[in-house]
Design a protein that fits this description.
heterotrimer; A alpha+beta (194); B mainly alpha (198); C mainly alpha (258); A: 194 residues; alpha+beta; 2 domains; five-stranded antiparallel beta sheet; 4 helices; elongated; C: 258 residues; mainly alpha; two-stranded antiparallel sheet; 12 helices; 2% strand; globular
């Protein structure tokens, strides 16, 4: 009996932990879908901002061997979509890439038009400190990409002006866009994109 | 690769100093910076706990929580790990390193609620750092904490001697001088950019 | 070592407890205590981390305050409910567990329904766990009082914290970016150029220092008016706050006051 008493605090603590975990699991299962949906909505919005005329976006299908090849070249994009208008003609392509910026991950959504020129780039930078490392999300910097060619790698401070005071993040974002362009070139070469 | 480490460590110490720019660990920053000795004792304890906590929480997140899809338990698990860790470090120190325990012992229990420790472990995960990068980040954060405490204890010893207006005495003047120290750290903002940004 | 110390500080005999309850904790007192006399942010100087970090805009300050308000009220309610079940030995870990649970719930709800808010508050949401206010109130109030006073205490402390955050956030947003809740403030921008300084970290320290100073002046005036009403700056029973929360200024402030 005495022995049991010594363990009582530990048992109660374990019990409290157990109940808490149970509660959290419950909340998680309730909010999980909503969180995923929010992310999806945000991604969808980004795509629509780039191609406002598009009616549907379809993920581009490509074989594993091409994926492997892209991976070895270091240009494997996270996601690739084709934007269609209501007649079913392709307006352009969307590449989502991520890279490492100054304060954390940077994700770029690059829209490339049917003419092979960059339509628009949207960047989202993960940052845990409000306003820090978010400079690359600004339009003045990203608008610098619009209309540029995808035929060669873009060079920061030559083709695009860097955000002053945020060169590291600007470089990371440019690298992401370059990887999107390189992937686009590969797809064109393979005939997956016309 | 080593460039990444340098960027991480320089930003953690100077540019995004945990205390002066991320405001983590302000409680202990204001509480123990009254004299240099206690400030150094606290910093030593914080550096220890930060390093060990990062070394433990990173594998927990990547080998336990993520595979089991339990990412949402992160905050709960991390804070409990830190609390247990602090207790354990205290016991080990007491047994095997009495002089060190004498120096740091009284600060250890206070560290559980120091947001800098929980902050650095969560940041390591959120920033997608590898294990080594996490350790470098923790080290940088610890050094940054020490540096700001060290500098500020000097400032405070001057304030004690200064003739401060009655209404500003105590906390207000301490915070305003902390603001000035933070201004001086703003000067480092371009440092990392210019050293590694090219 | 510290374990024993804490026990001494927090232990009170049932009679003492009863007397304390009857004499002091009327609902009105609890509410005013939380919002004014012992305002957690401006009087006790607890929870400075979010106070300085998220107050770059009134909006993010307000929602941060609400998050803390919810966690504080909920955790105080539960802790008070379990106060006779939780053994003294494992008190602190149990409190931390309960607080962390509510913080995580808030975090999940925010990222599910207010993703933009999640973006602007970032890491400071999980860091509510180590906000000294929570442990301090759990330790000094909820673990000794009945459930209703505890809920009221959590609510009023949370309100006090929210108001302090809102005050700092408004000052910094108006002076720093010339807006208030994202709306343009007249004169700012045309006559006065917004001062970047207030948006930067040093501005946080500065505004906080000035706010505390102003509150001190106000309180001193009030104390002169109604001296001996039990509104001393550090309030009732506080040494344990210092133990549970990293020597947060509570006692230091006391020393400084003298």
């Amino acid at each position: 009996m005495q022995k049991l008493k010594g363990f009582l605090p530990a048992i109660i603590l374990a019990l409290i932990c157990g109940i808490c975990v149970f509660l959290l699991a419950g909340t998680y299962s309730l909010t999980k879908d909503k969180i995923a949906e929010q992310e999806k909505v945000a991604a969808e919005e980004r795509k629509l901002t780039i191609f406002p005329g598009a009616r549907s976006f379809e993920a581009l299908q490509y074989s594993d061997s091409i994926r492997e090849e892209l991976k070895t070249d270091g240009i494997d994009p996270d996601e690739v979509y084709i934007a269609y208008d209501e007649n079913g003609t392709a307006l352009g392509y969307i590449f989502i890439n991520s890279g490492f910026g100054y304060a954390g991950q940077i994700v770029t959504t690059t829209g490339i038009g049917a003419d092979g020129k960059i339509v628009m780039v949207i960047a989202t930078a993960a940052s845990d400190t409000p306003k820090l490392g978010k400079e690359v999300e600004g339009r003045p910097f990203l608008d610098g990409f619009t209309g540029l060619t995808t035929e060669r790698d873009l060079i920061l401070k030559q083709d695009v002006a860097a955000v002053s005071g945020a060169t590291i993040s600007s470089r990371a974002a440019t690298a992401c866009v370059n990887r999107a362009c390189a992937a686009y070139r590969t797809f064109v070469e393979k005939g997956l994109i016309v | 690769m080593s460039n990444t480490f340098l960027i991480i460590i320089f930003s953690a110490i100077l540019v995004d100093n945990f205390v002066l720019s991320k405001f983590m660990g302000i409680c202990s920053f204001l509480g123990v910076s009254k004299n240099l000795k206690t400030a150094m004792g606290m910093s030593g304890a914080v550096v220890c706990v930060m390093l060990v906590a990062s070394a433990i929480t990173w594998p927990i997140q990547h080998f336990l929580l993520n595979p089991l899809n339990l990412g949402y338990l992160q905050t709960l698990v991390f804070i409990l790990v830190i609390a247990a860790l602090v207790q354990m470090i205290e016991m080990i120190m007491k047994k095997s390193m009495p002089p060190l325990h004498k120096a740091l012992g009284i600060y250890l229990p206070l560290i559980t609620t120091n947001c800098a420790v929980l902050g650095v472990t969560i940041l390591n995960i959120n920033s997608n750092y590898t294990f080594i990068e996490s350790m470098v980040n923790a080290l940088g954060a610890g050094i940054g904490f020490t540096l700001s405490l060290f500098l500020f204890s000097g400032v405070r010893s001057r304030i004690d001697k200064a003739d401060v207006p009655e209404t500003l005495k105590g906390l207000p003047i301490t915070l305003i001088s902390a603001s000035l120290v933070a201004v001086s750290f703003l000067g480092f903002k371009g440092l990392v950019e210019n050293l590694f940004g090219g | 070592m510290s374990e024993n110390k804490m026990k001494d500080v927090t232990y009170r005999s049932p009679d003492e407890r009863l007397a304390e309850k009857k004499s002091k904790y009327t609902p009105k007192y609890i509410f005013l205590n939380g919002v004014l006399y012992e305002n957690p942010a401006l009087r006790l100087v607890l929870g400075t981390c979010p106070l300085l970090a998220v107050t770059i805009s009134a909006k993010s300050s307000f929602f941060m305050g609400l998050a803390v308000l919810f966690v504080l009220t909920a955790s105080e309610a539960i802790i008070s409910l379990l106060r006779n079940i939780i053994p003294n030995k494992v008190r602190i870990p149990a409190f931390i567990t309960i607080i962390a649970t509510f913080v995580t719930i808030v975090q999940m709800v925010i990222s599910a329904y207010f993703p933009a808010l999640n973006d602007s508050l970032g890491i400071y949401i999980p860091l509510i766990v180590v906000n000294c206010i929570l442990l301090a109130r759990a330790e000094t109030f909820a673990s000794k009082q009945k459930i209703l006073p505890s809920i009221l205490d959590g609510f009023s402390m949370g309100t006090g914290f929210t108001l302090a955050l809102l005050l700092m956030g408004s000052i910094r947003e108006i002076l720093g970016s010339g807006t208030f809740f994202d709306m343009k403030v007249p004169l700012m921008g045309d006559v006065f150029e917004p001062m970047m300084f207030f948006m930067l970290p040093p501005g946080g320290f500065f505004v906080f220092g000035i706010c505390i100073c102003l509150v001190q002046i106000l309180m001193k005036k009030q104390e002169k008016h109604s001296s001996g009403k039990g509104t001393s700056p550090c309030g009732s029973s506080s040494p344990s706050d210092c133990i549970s929360c990293a020597g947060c200024n509570l006692c230091k402030g006391k020393e400084d006051d003298k």
